[in-house]
Protein 1
Amino acid sequence: MFSLLRPYIFSLDPEVAHDLAIQSLKANILPKSLFDVEGEEILEIDLFNKKLPNPIGLAAGFDKSAEVYNSLFKFGFGLIEVGTITPKRQLGNPKPRIFRLEKDKALINRLGFNNHGSEVISKRISKNQPNGFLGVNIGPNKDTINKLEDYLTCLSNLSIFSDYVTINISSPNTQGLRNFHKKEEMEKLLSGINNLKKEKKIETPIAIKISPDIKDSEIESIIELIQKYNVQGIIVSNTTDTNRDNLSDIKKDELGGLSGQPLKDISTNLIKKFYKKTKGTIKIIGVGGVDSGQSAFEKIAAGADAVQLYTGMVYKGPGIVKDIKKELITILKKENFKNIRQVVGINA
């Protein structure tokens, strides 16, 4: 069905198409059985001390205000991450702010954390309990005076409603956000988060989402701090604001974060670097260019415990999850693996 609708969808502005998708998902009419996959047991994983049916996740950025996650779980995702959510409602950057690079199977976005705000969203999730493993991605408001306080506000408001919370320090569309990759700034942030967790007895696992544009010299200090402050997960990686030289599409120079196929090898190589140094002691979620069973397998073999996608679904539709799982199962059986867990890090 998506292949028939795609020419119409792609004739629309990307953000208009996305908003229509959200509205249609609110109807929640598609049966879960449509996306069932035979033999999925081989894909079962453990993430943050919970068993998930498979390692295929939806990245933050699609369901920004946690409006349709239960409809999305029907597509067969093992995990879904909503957000990025800020303390206060935020409209984001001026439009247009999403661009399809069809020749490159990529997107560029400069949305700027548009969402309904943490209070509205926390009430929304409380009234609509997730039917699966739900992560919540949080960040600061654009005009905030104190970014650290914004993270703490969101963590306080949303941790109870999530299976894990992602600290987004890596979007290229919020000025100064990536400064948290610096050792001193990250230490302040993680120390503040730990203090709040102790004070409010928050036990929700914490993951940190990093930039693909970090230098190799920064990896050591990031690992040192996430181990010191007991961060349970790393998401590798966010979009990149570089890597434009080899792109073909005329929109390649638009400002914003680049996602999709051009990010695939960059994020996979970064996963390997983190896995080599952490040796499986910290959970890694791999993001960037996942649109097939093979690309998911590559990320897991590089050291990811789970993967997330977004751009792949824009280009291939909701059936992509079923297709990835079927292809993964075929690869595992061909290579004589009994479970996807055995693949983690084999190529690192």
Protein 2
Amino acid sequence: MLVKLDNSVLLSKSIDVISELVSEVRIKVNEFGMSITARDPANVAMVGFRLPKGAFSQFEVDDEVLGVNLDDFKRILKRAGTGSSLILERQDNLLKIQIQDRIRRNFSLNLIDIDTEDKEMPGLEFSSRVEIDSIDFIASIEDCAVVANSCSFIIEDGKFIIEAKGLNSARSEFSGDEAKIQAENCKAKYSLEYLQKFIKGSKLTEKTILKFANDHPLKMDCRTEHMGISFILAPRVETDD
């Protein structure tokens, strides 16, 4: 396996986001590109990541599975600058990483055995889809985190509302002028601890797509032309509101 990525930021920033949820992953590299699917240890959230073959300037692979410690991988990737190219090559039980910019720098990352079954993002059905400017979504989640540890996503009469209530409260309201809303009236509550990790993915894209339903898991998609990160988060279902 030998692949070259001219825009190293695509991978380094994505790995940084994924490492918020899991510490070890199996990176799949095949004819379609590079992908990761992982579930967090608490079994509350999942993350899916994809760099398609077209994102790479050089792509020589068979089917590969690379077990990596994300903290170690992240520290190496952070040594690459904005204009750096990245070459990844498997040699036996090592991942050789070359950073090319003004000079060439070489690293070796020890590959590890990860004894987990391969996972796939589940197919879920949703009654609501909201496409929102990432900057607005990030601000709303950060507002809610100031006052509570969970927030509700609400569809009410064609409006999308993000609301948190504790001793204090925060609320953001979006009409069809500020977001693309295709939804039925519903309400679901989610952990802000996880959403604050997810919005690091939103910082990589102009738009964030949210899919949810009444007391149903959330699916959140952050996509660019050459990169996609998706998250799934279980709802908080409480007997008394």
